[in-house]
């Protein structure tokens, strides 16, 4: 949507919803009345069809078909079948992507595979480059791997995207970057960055947690080496639904994993005494998969495959631009600082503002029906998921934020209390 046509009244927002071809997608989701859900970047909403699928996998497949389901209901093939679908969403080929485990574990697997390849080719390179602002678990997993390897590897953290080029000295083995930053929403150009990394002789491991399903991604065409990501955010897979790991075809034969469990074995049911890795991405499976969760998440993945991702991206940018503009024009007197890029080329699908009383402000907003979330320090984060958020929702959310700030609703002592999960 061009700037001059951006809505400036609630009626114009409602009009934009009426003209939005993607608006019908909202009916595919079960969202409670009276709630504007701006946290799909943390836990995607429930696809209605997932309820029936979950009931079926529990009552029929588990309850009635019992152990026969591994063959009859194709449970054994689920991580590959769904992995192949996720592969299509992120632009990877067949057999290169599997759905399994958590993003944290898949970061460990991707990093160790990349390091093993570099160890053979360029053993003197012992540095992993990442971002200080990366989601902490990615850095924690790298720390754990480095300690386990005990071979002089170290982590070099950059403070800003423009510092990457300088960090790429001839000692760098692997660069691990999260394409969309969880806090600011900064979006890296995957193709340009991967080229920079390769020109410096390193391999690129991409974390797509906030990009899979949020922005169009083409891992293979853009040259990535490895990619991981989760499915419970923009892919609406459900709480704790399995993550994914993708390996470029050129690395598949050499990509090894230290987590050599039986599900990654070439023939698991041969029960042989030693490990032989399966061909393709299957080797990144470790043990028995969480079938109920995996079967349920396929519904969200299928929903995504049915939608035009370019149209989704256009709507996402129209909504995030509208959100930024409304906050900055209608709430101008309040101390809100945008930390998300204005440049659409570098913006994912969420918008974050800092406010000195961010935590209490978010609690008050949630109590008033607008669910976003809070991230340290002082950050109000709003996930704008174009599958089920509309233009009038954005208007109403900003008006609620205005009321919380104008009337100082956040001062209520109740909103200062912190739970275990923020
Ligand atoms: C959400 C997120 C994770 C979550 O990891 P889990 O292992 O699923 O808990 C990891 N990395 C990034 C960049 C994320 O945004």
From TrEMBL:
The keyword Hydrolase applies. SUPFAM superfamilies: PLP-dependent transferases. Its cofactor is pyridoxal 5'-phosphate. Keywords: Hydrolase, Pyridine nucleotide biosynthesis, Pyridoxal phosphate. The modification N6-(pyridoxal phosphate)lysine is found at residue 233. It is an enzyme of class 3 (hydrolase). NCBIfam families: kynureninase. HAMAP family: Kynureninase (MF_01970). This is Kynureninase. It comes from Microbacterium candidum. The lineage of its organism: Bacteria, Bacillati, Actinomycetota, Actinomycetes, Micrococcales. The gene is kynU.
């Amino acid at each position: 949507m061009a700037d001059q046509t951006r809505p400036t009244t609630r009626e114009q927002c409602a009009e934009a919803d009426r003209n939005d071809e993607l608006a019908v997608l909202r009916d595919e989701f079960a969202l409670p009345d009276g709630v504007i859900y701006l946290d799909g970047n943390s836990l995607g909403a429930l696809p209605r069809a997932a309820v029936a699928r979950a009931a079926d996998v529990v009552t029929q497949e588990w309850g009635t078909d019992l152990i026969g389901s591994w063959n009859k209901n194709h449970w054994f093939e689920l991580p590959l079948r769904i992995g192949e679908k996720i592969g299509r969403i992120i632009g990877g080929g067949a057999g290169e992507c599997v759905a399994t485990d958590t993003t944290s574990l898949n970061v460990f697997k991707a990093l160790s595979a990349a390091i093993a390849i570099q160890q053979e080719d360029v053993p003197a390179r012992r540095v992993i480059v990442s971002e200080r602002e990366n989601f902490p678990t990615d850095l924690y997993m790298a720390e754990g791997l480095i300690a386990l390897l005990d071979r002089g590897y170290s982590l070099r953290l950059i403070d800003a995207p423009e510092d990457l080029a300088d960090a790429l000295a001839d000692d760098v083995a692997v660069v691990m970057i999260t394409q969309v930053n969880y806090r600011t929403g900064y979006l890296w150009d995957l193709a340009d960055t991967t080229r920079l990394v390769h020109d410096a002789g390193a391999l690129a491991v991409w974390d797509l947690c906030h990009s899979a399903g949020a922005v169009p991604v083409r891992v293979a065409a853009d040259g990535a080496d490895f990619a991981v990501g989760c499915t419970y955010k923009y892919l609406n897979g459900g709480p704790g639904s399995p993550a994914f790991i993708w390996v470029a075809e050129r690395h598949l034969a050499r990509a090894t994993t230290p987590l050599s469990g039986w599900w990654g074995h070439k023939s698991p049911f041969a029960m042989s005494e030693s490990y032989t890795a399966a061909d393709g991405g299957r080797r990144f499976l470790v043990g028995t998969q969480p079938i109920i969760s995996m079967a349920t998440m396929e519904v969200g993945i299928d929903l995504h495959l049915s939608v035009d991702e370019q149209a989704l991206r256009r709507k996402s940018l129209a909504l995030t631009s509208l959100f930024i503009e409304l906050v900055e024009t209608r709430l101008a007197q309040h101390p809100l600082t945008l930390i998300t890029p204005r440049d659409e080329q570098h913006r994912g699908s969420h918008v974050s503002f800092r406010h000195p009383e961010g935590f209490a402000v978010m609690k008050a907003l949630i109590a008033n029906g607008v669910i976003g979330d809070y991230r340290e320090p002082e950050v109000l984060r709003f996930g704008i998921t174009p599958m089920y958020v509309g233009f009038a929702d954005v208007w109403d959310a900003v008006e609620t934020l205005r009321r919380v700030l104008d009337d100082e609703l956040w001062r209520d002592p109740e909103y200062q209390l912190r739970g275990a999960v923020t």
